Amino acid sequence: MASLVAALLVILMLNGLEPAMSQPYPNYHADFVDIDQAKNEPKWWQTGAFYQIYPRSFKDSNGDGIGDLNGIADRLPYLKELGITATWLSPIFTSPMADFGYDIANFTEIAPIFGSMSDFENLLKIAKQLNIKIILDFVPNHSSDECEWFKRSAARDPEYKDFYVWHPGKMVNGVHQPPSNWVSVFHGSAWQWHEGRKEYYLHQFVKKQPDLNYRNPKVREAMKNVLRFWLAKGVAGFRIDAVPHVFEIAPDAAGQYRDEPRNNGNNDPDDYGYLQHIYTVDQPETINLVYEWRAVLDEFKDGDERILLAETYSPIDIVMQYYGNATAEGAQLPFNFRLISDISNNSNAESYEWTILQWLQHMPKGRTANWVLGNHDQPRVGSRLGTDRIDMLNMLTTTLPGASVTYQGEELGMTNVWISWKDTVDPSACNTNPNVYEHYSRDPERTPFQWSDDIDAGFSNASKTWLPIGPSYKLINLEKERKEPLSHFNIFKQLMQLRKETKTLQVGETEVKAVNRNVLGVKRFRQHDFTYVTLLNIFDGTETVNLKDSFADLTTDMEVVLVTDKSQRKAGDFINSENLQLLPKESLILRSTSTYYTYYSNGEHRQLPIEGVYLLVAQVVLYLSYRRVLTLNSVC
Ligand SMILES: [Ca+2]
Ligand SMILES: [Ca+2]
Fold it and tell me: What Gene Ontology molecular function terms does this protein carry (predicted)?
């Protein structure tokens, strides 16, 4: 009888607390997902699996050794198989390729080397059939010097005269000198003398990439029209290149540009690190410009929301402003590069926790997080952090809240490929010398995708590809990895699938903790649903952990949902969350054995495993059944 009373009391207590559940949890960002009210679902991009295609290296359809649009169209079913939501393509526009397409000669024309406009339209059509969104690269900071706008500007055509940042420079002892000490990202002065116009033009990148003048309203409108052109064709949005460089400081009253201050410790005046870039990056006007671009996207109200992904490595307080403010929307996803910039091979679980929380705790309310592990400008994740950490990092970015961004080939575990000075083509490296080029080259992460162990790794059938094929392609290629249950590819695919079918991972709340110095834990939880815990044993020691010391309200038994080849466990196994041993580099995704009921205690919302409630209810039912049997017996 006592247990019946207790059960009833508990049930009454829980029922009485029902209204308290509408209050927020004491957590980082209880409402990070701004639900699409009409569909009662997160918006398509909020838990999206984004995938960067570097078109030159994805798939070559015509045997010239360079990837192209028909190659991408041919392999879109692969992205579907992987579970990708949207792919952003590095530039595919007409270009002399001085910076492999980031020097655009015509912003609304497809480069013949990649195909034609009808090839692009065909790609969009196939993508739509497969429900994969296509996102283009928008390169606002500069055009090519072979762009018609630049030629007309150099010729002082009245319409285009001020389209670029021109300056007569200084005259010292009868010799022309650049207007300021500004240094190009790619080495040497950022100013180039133009013989035709007899003036200097600014180029923050290579000299074939003159900076557009965003203080000219005609430039701003022309570039908005570029966005409109592609949006009307049906692209899902843009990744915006080199955002912090768009605006420079305006010239002073005397029409001069101020020198940037020196960085102590760097004595090479041609090196980008020589100066503190206080006048050439992160100018406040740039943030407002991104808001204006967002407004252009919002002009397109048909179909799904169009989105902006903003590339910026700026300090976190500046990055966060790109999301928008109280009155204006900005980029839905300013790229989060913290896992690239702040995490090294030696980072322990506390560093990971700090790095992840940097983003989550700075992110404005209602915004969506994202996690980038690699891109065409960064050493591959396996080369940076270890090939034995590739799967655990994919596990981490998929189970953290928000969107994940994967660079092509990293789902296979492709690593950097050593490229000789002779084969080096990246201008960032070619502008240096054979002794130091490796420090600057981005070629190692740009080599062709490894589809199979055929000639050219199945990328092409050319006798020479534009960059050499990685020598590891016999071991690391899609065809081989398809056959291995715990290959990087298969784990990646399972991760995409798990997020797609798991509401807790999509919209649940998040706790990130260093369980100890070597083990990182991420808990995702949601009312009336299962709790998920991702564990990463970052180093080579065996670790024994009690998860209940770090995370409240876990069930004692937890089910293993996903493993990597570093584990001896398999999906479906059960572990004891109070005493769990992790092998070196083992990473796991665990799921609670029961869903949760929420209650309120000591000013905090807490959770009670629903299994406890079930046990009590079962006792009540048994007790009542027993009473009924007794009563019937006594009547007979
Ligand atoms: Ca080709
Ligand atoms: Ca600029």
Answer: alpha-1,4-glucosidase activity
Q: What spacing in Å lies between the alpha carbon of 243 and ligand 2's midpoint?
A: 9
Query: Do 16 and 58 sit in the same domain of this protein?
Result: no
Å from CA of 71 to ligand 1 middle: 8
Count of domains for the chain? 3
Residue 597 neighbours by CB under 8 Å, 6+ apart: 14, 528, 607, 608, 609, 610, 613
> What is the domain range of residue 78?
49-143+217-258+278-414
pTM of the model: 0.90
Q: Rounded CA gap, 240 and 333, in Å?
A: 11
One domain for residues 452 and 536: no
Query: CB of 579 within 8 A of CB of 549?
Result: no
Nearest to 589 by CA among 547, 553, 617: 547
- Contacts with 62 (C-beta within 8 Å, 6 or more apart), sequence order: 68, 70
Q: What is the pLDDT of residues 49-77, one digit of tens each?
A: 999 999 999 999 999 999 999 999 999 99
CATH of the domain at 56: 3.20.20.80
- Determine the residue type at 587: S
Ligand with smallest separation from the Cα of 215: 2
Contact present, 53 and 72 (Cβ < 8 Å): yes
Q: How far is the CA of 292 from the centre of ligand 2 (A)?
A: 17
SS (H, E, C) 107-138: EEEECCCCCCHHHHHHHHHHHHHHCCEEEEEE
Name the residues around ion ligand 1, CB cutoff 5 A. 60, 62, 64, 66, 68
Same domain, 132 and 229: yes
CB-side exposure of 298: number of CA atoms within 13 Å?
11
Kindly report the number of other CB atoms within 10 A of residue 71's CB atom.
25
Q: Are residues 447 and 550 in the same domain?
A: no
| List of residues 6+ apart from 92 with CB closer than 8 A | 55, 69, 101, 110, 111, 114, 115, 120, 136, 137
Distance from Cα 226 to the centre of ligand 2, integer Å: 17
For residue 337, CA distances in Å to 172, 312, 341, 582 come to 43, 8, 6, 28
Domain match, 521 and 494 both: no
pLDDT band, very low/low/confident/very high, at 326 (cuts 50, 70, 90): confident
Residues labelled as active-site residues: 241, 311
DSSP state of 22: G
CATH number at residue 568: 2.60.40.1180
Closest-lying ligand to the alpha carbon of 62? Answer: 1
In three-state secondary structure terms, 319 is: helix
| CB burial readout 72-105, b (16+ within 10 A) else e | bbebbebbeebbbbbbbbbbbbbbebbbbbbbbb
Please indicate, yes or no, whether residues 489 and 540 belong to a single structural domain of this protein: no
Give the Å distance between the CA of 487 and the centre of ligand 1. 29
**Closest ligand to Cα 140:** 2
DSSP, collapsed to helix, strand or coil, labels residue 274 as: helix
333 and 476 in a single domain? The answer is no
Q: How far is the CA of 437 from the centre of ligand 2 (A)?
A: 25
Task: Render 456-499 in DSSP notation, one character per residue.
Answer: GGGS---SS-SSPPPGGGGTS-HHHHHT-TTSHHHHHHHHHHHH
Q: Answer yes or no: do 572 and 454 share one domain.
A: no
Counting ligands in written order, the one closest to the CA of 223 is 2
Q: Which residues surround ligand 2, an ion (CB under 5 A)?
A: 141, 211, 245
